[in-house]
Amino acid sequence: MSISTTGAVARPETAAAPRGGAPPGRRLPDLARWLSPLALVLLWQAASATGVLPEDKLASPATVLVTGWSLALDGQLGDALLVSSGRVAAGFLAGAAMGGVLGLVSGLSRWGERLVDPPVQMLRTLPHLGLIPLFILWFGIGEEPKLALVAAGAAFPLYLNLHAGIRQTDPALLEAARVLGCTRYERIAHVVLPAAVPQALVGLRIALGAAWLSLIVGEQVNADAGIGFLINNAREFLRTDVVVVGLLVYALLGLTTDALVRAVERRVLRWQAR
Amino acid sequence: MAGAVSVRGLVKEFPVAVGRRIRPGEWRRVLDGVDLEIAPGEFVALLGRSGSGKSTLLRVLAGLDADVAGGFSVPRRVSVAFQQPRLLPWRRVWRNVVLGLREVDGRVVAERALAEVRLAERADAWPLTLSGGEAQRVSLARALVRRPDLLLLDEPFGALDALTRLAMHRLVEQLWREHRPTVLLVTHDVDEALLLADRVVVLDAGRITASHVVDLDRPRRRSSFADLRVAVLADLGVDDAEAA
Q1: Considering only CA atoms, which of A198, A204, A107 is closest in space to residue A155?
Q2: Nearest alpha-carbon partner for B14 in B36, B31, B33, B1
C-alpha cells in the first residue's frame, strides 16, 4: 500500500504461497511488465526534448535525474528528508499510541467498546485533512499542526483494524483455552492478541500510508524545512524539476516504510506459511 | 471416588431464537432428564442422532454450558478433545500441548506427551503444517498431558479420513489402557463405539433410551460384535436391512 491509499479496514493478506503455482522464490519477475512504464518515460523525454512539453510545465526525466543528484550531493535533499521523516516518526508514534490504546480498550472490554467506539466512529467520518484550519487556529503555524495532522491520520486506521482484529477472534479457540484452564489474562495473551495481529498489521500499513499523506498536506502550510518546503520553494521559481524530485522522494519514503512493515509481517506471521 | 461421573435428572434448555431475535419465554429442551453413572476408568460411548443432545451433554460435563437443572458431578480434572483440534495456529505444537499448564519444564512435559501420540518430531512445527490426523493427535496429547480423571471426546475422529480414523482408534484405546481415565466418547459411529467402549449408551431426544454393556475382549474385531451392532442400530431407529 503506498501513501496514495487511505482505507479504513482492509482484509489481511495471508502470507501463504499461491497453491499450484510455481514455488516461491524461483519465480522470475515478469520483465514484460516494465515495457509500458519504460515507454512512457521515453515518451515523456521525447516530448520534453522536442519542446512539446515546456520546461516550466514539467521538466524532462533527464533533468529531474540530474537535479535529484545535485540536490543529494549538496545536502539539501538529505536535510529535507531528515526533517520530513522526523515529523512522520513523531506524529505517527503519537497517533499509533493513541489508536493502539483506544483499540485495545474498546476491543478487550465491553464497557470500553460502549464508551470509546461511538465517538471514534463518529470522528472518523470527518476527513481529517480538512482539520487543518482548526489545527492552525489551535496550534499556530509551527511544527505542532503538522504533527497533529499526521497523528490524526495514523490513529484511526490503527484503531479500526485493531478493534476489528480483536473482535473477530475465533470463539472456538477461546472456548478451548478456557477448558484448558487459561485465565482471562492468558486467554488475551495467547488467543485474543495473536489472533488480532494480522488485522492490526494491515492497520499499521494503512496508518503509515495515511501518515505520509497527512505530512504532505501538512507541509504545504508554511513549512520552513522538509520536503514540502523544498517543493513549495521550487514552485515559486518555476523549478518543476525540483518539484518532481520532491514527489519522487515522498513516494520512495512511503514505499520504504511499507516494505519495512511487510518485512515485520513476514517474520511475525510466519506461522501462516503452510 | 476420583474419576466417577454421576448425572441425575439433568435438564438443559436453550432460548428459542428466530434469526438474531430471541423469543422471550420460549425454550427448547435439549436435555430432558438425563441419568447416567460412569464408573472410574470406564470407557463409555454416547451414541445419538444429530440433535439428540449428545454434544450438549458433553459440553455441560466440560463446564462449557452452565444454567442447567438437575445435578451432576464430575472429577476435578477434566480434559476435552473437540471434533476440530482447535490448536492455536500462532503457537508451535509443543506450546499448544502445554497451553494453560503451569509446569516449569513445559518443553519436556510436552515432548513426553507428543511421544505418546508418536509426534515427538513435530514439537516445533506450526499447527497449520500438520495433517488432520496429526493435528488431532496433538489435541489428544494436549488433553492427556493434564492427567485427566475424566476425558471427554467430542467426535474427535469425525473429520478424519477412514484410514487415519482406524489408526486413531487403536491409539486412543492404547492410551486409555495406559492411563485409565474415565472416558466419555460422543460419536454417531456405531462401529467406533462398539470397538472402543465398555458400555454404549444411546441418547434420543434428550433422554438415555438404551444402554448396552460391550463385554468383548480387546483389541476387538468388527466381526465379533455383529449382533450387538444390530441391537444398537435398532435403538437408534435404523433397521439392519438399511445398515447392512
Answers
A1: A204
A2: B31
Which of A174, A179, A187 would you mutate first to test chain B, the one with the most B CBs within 10 A? A179
Flag if A272 and B146 touch (Cβ within 8 Å): no
Which residues contact residue A161 at a Cβ distance below 8 angstroms, ignoring those fewer than 6 apart?
Answer: A9, A10, A103, A199, A200, A202, A203, A204, A206
Across the interface, which of B79, B84, B146 has its CB nearest the CB of A172?
B84
Q: Which domains does chain B have, with CATH numbers?
A: 5-85+149-243 (3.40.50.300)
Render pLDDT for A149-191 as a digit per residue (tens, 0 to 9). Answer: 999 999 999 999 999 999 999 999 999 999 999 999 999 999 9
pLDDT tens across B102-114, in order? 888 999 999 999 9
Cβ contact B203:B46 at 8 Å = yes
To test the contact with chain B by mutation, choose from A180, A193, A265, A274 the residue with the greatest count of B C-beta atoms within 10 A, namely A180
The architecture of the domain spanning A59-272 is Orthogonal Bundle (1.10)
Give me the residues paired with residue B28 across strands: B14
Q: Distance between the two ends of chain B, CA-based, in angstroms?
A: 42
Collect all residues of chain A within an 8 Å Cβ-Cβ radius of residue B128. Answer: 271-274
pLDDT tens track for B9-36: 999 988 888 888 888 888 888 999 999 9
Residue among B108, B91, B104, B182 at smallest CA distance from B143:
B182
- Condensed to tens digits (0 to 9), the pLDDT of residues A34-76 reads 999 999 999 999 999 998 999 889 999 999 999 999 999 999 9
The residues facing B154 across adjacent strands are B186
* ipTM of this complex prediction, to 2 decimal places: 0.88
Dist CA B193 CA B212 (whole Å): 11
Over its C-alpha atoms, chain B yields an Rg (Å, rounded) of 19
Q: What are the φ and ψ backbone dihedral angles of B22, each rounded to 5 degrees?
A: -85, 130
Between CA B167 and CA B132 the distance in angstroms is 13
Cβ(A14)–Cβ(A272) below 8 Å: yes
Contact check, Cβ <8 Å, B142/A180 = yes
Candidates B89, B99, B127; nearest CB to A180: B99
As a whole number, mean pLDDT of residues B50-54 equals: 87
Q: Quick one: closest CA in A to B144, which residue?
A: A180
User: Per the structure block, which three cell numbers stand in for A148?
Assistant: 497533529
CA distance A115 to A263: 35
Q: What is the pLDDT of residue B223?
A: 84
Q: Report CB contact under 8 Å: A186, B62.
A: no
Q: Where are the domains of chain A?
A: 59-272
